[in-house]
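Rather than argue in generalities, we reproduce a single protein record, letters for residues, whole numbers for local backbone shapes, just as it appears below:
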Amino acid sequence: MTKFIIWLVLIALLATALLGAWWWFDLRWRPHTITKKQIEMVKILETSGFVSPKLGGPKLYMIGFRGCPDCIRYVAEEFPRLHAAGVDTRVIYLARPDLNGAEKSTAVERATIAELAFGHDWGLFERWTATPLEAWTGEGIPPADGDQMRTAVVEARRKTINDLRPLLKANGVKVGETGLRYPTLIWWTRDGEMKACVCERPETYRYVRADLGAK
């Protein structure tokens, strides 16, 4: 009887360890399936003023900001693979609002975001992201500050993110305390499921690629 109890304990410990390993290496990185408020989310995304290479494959929306290290890594490492598979990467970058009196975006960043929203120029986005952040001058881009229409576009982008936050949270996506975490990705699988993740870690990338048919 004692041996039987010992074996039961050992089996229980092994099962617990296996479940813990499954969660640690797999489950915690998996994206969330969007089942609530899909129509509202699609409407917000499609009217967000995104910029994309206009490829004909599956759609992937990426929300972030230019100085976000995890966004920079995702663009550099994953966009080439996704584009090779025909994925239309639709980027929504925002100029973060001031926080406690501290400016979280620059004038040239706001100007570039407004220009992208107006012109949808993928080439401009590629030049911006290929240039070191501190070296980007936005030469030839009209300023957004002092321009009522362009400032409105920058503010509308912030509102887009604020509107998405509760909808993503309702679907189990771990959003930030006051805004989103970046990059936040939203896409559709080949089977038509809508999914999302906060893909801050490279461990999440493989699930996005698998859903979108990218190597």
Observations:
- The chain has one domain: 30-212.
- The beta strands are 32-33, 59-64, 88-93, 184-188, 194-198.
- The two ends are 53 Å apart (CA to CA).
- The first strand starts at residue 32 and ends at 33.
